[in-house]
Design goal:
Blueprint: H1 2-29, H2 33-38, H3 44-53, H4 60-72, H5 86-121, H6 126-140, H7 143-157, E1 170-172, E2 175-177, H8 182-215, H9 218-225, H10 230-238, H11 243-259, H12 262-267, H13 273-283, H14 286-314, H15 316-326
Antiparallel strand pairs: 1-2
Helix pairs in contact: 1-4, 1-14, 5-6, 5-8, 5-11, 5-14, 6-8, 7-8, 8-11, 11-14, 13-14, 14-15
């Protein structure tokens, strides 16, 4: 177990170094930060002085080493668009993105897993066909179209939910949340549903496929032949053995929800990191783009590590294999 964790940590470090190198290359080949910071009216002497102050006149390996050292401290410099520290901007926007991603993931799990189980146990029925049709629509429709349709129905026609913004938030130290206010919950509903639709249908189809596969195994047939209650067989044995691939997908999708909430945040003007990244791309704000890239990579690395550890909790066979390997 310890060796497994150490291997994953080493792999995570290598991934972060690779992503850090890619992020560093943005400073080298995407725009000229010195020209953007100094302005077009600056003199060559002023630009050279600013380049020396930023350390851009040093050799490439020294610049990359300095970039990695600063990144470890969470220091990605100053935003070229807003003139503020990038770490401050990320800290302000991250709670909104995390809140939206977690809400979407919980909704996808709470709805997707039961729908997948029902579709598997009621295979061939009208209900199963309806669920599969709905899942096909959820997978096929683009996120921005789902968001626009939800805004049209619930914000424009019915006027029951707001269409943009985060609503009233409460500051808990440096952390902001809208989950403690009714207005915050109202603003969260539409973007969370929009972001969760694809994940929900994906989980539903995966659970259904894995459940059908497990239901054909000998031990499930033996359990049914012994007269065990259906609830015990289907939920105590069959569903439990479908959770390993589901955990993998859910873990990766949680990272994807955080990383790729850009479209949803843009449609609903949700003040998270995705909207900040879109604005930074439009302005070629390289420090913000580099910080976003490194942070998303770190999120994926941490989530993958947690998912791998959850395998040992869900699947007893992995614990037995680890124990046998230790002996």
């Amino acid at each position: 177990m310890l060796a497994f964790v150490l291997r994953r940590l080493v792999q995570g470090v290598l991934v972060m170094l690779t992503v850090g190198f890619i992020a560093f290359m943005l400073f080298q080949y995407v725009g000229d930060p010195v020209m953007q910071m100094a302005g077009p009216d600056s003199t060559p002497e002023q630009r050279d002085q600013l380049r020396a102050d930023l350390g851009l006149d040093r050799p490439f390996p020294m610049q990359f080493a300095a970039f990695c050292a600063q990144a470890l401290r969470g220091d990605f410099g100053i935003s070229l668009r807003q003139g503020r520290k990038v770490s401050t901007l990320i800290a302000e926007r991250f709670p909104a993105t995390l809140e939206l991603a977690v809400a979407a993931a919980v909704l996808a799990l709470v709805v997707g897993i039961p729908m997948g189980v029902v579709a598997a146990l009621r295979r061939g029925t009208v209900l199963s066909q309806v669920l599969m049709t709905v899942s096909l629509l959820g997978v096929s429709l683009p996120t921005f179209l789902i968001g626009i349709l939800l805004i049209l129905v619930f914000a424009v026609m019915l006027k029951v939910l707001p269409s943009f913004g985060r609503g009233d938030v409460v500051q808990l130290g440096a952390w902001s949340t809208g989950l403690l206010t009714l207005d915050g919950w109202k603003h969260l509903v539409l973007p969370a549903v929009t972001l969760s639709v694809f994940q929900l249908t994906l989980i539903m189809r995966l659970v259904r496929a894995e459940m059908l596969e497990v239901l054909r195994t000998d031990y499930i047939r033996f359990a049914l032949a012994r007269g065990l209650p259906d609830r015990v067989v289907y939920f105590g044995h069959a569903l439990r053995n479908t959770l390993v691939p589901v955990i993998t997908v859910v873990g990766l999708q949680l990272g994807a929800l955080i990383a790729f909430s850009i479209i949803t945040e843009t449609v609903f003007q949700w003040p998270g990191m995705g909207l900040l990244f879109v604005q930074s791309v439009q302005f070629a704000d390289i420090p913000v783009m580099a910080a976003y890239l490194c942070l998303i990579a770190l999120v994926f690395v941490l989530i993958n590590l947690v998912v791998d550890l959850l395998y040992f909790v869900v699947d007893p066979r992995l614990r037995l294999d680890a124990g046998a390997g230790g002996h």
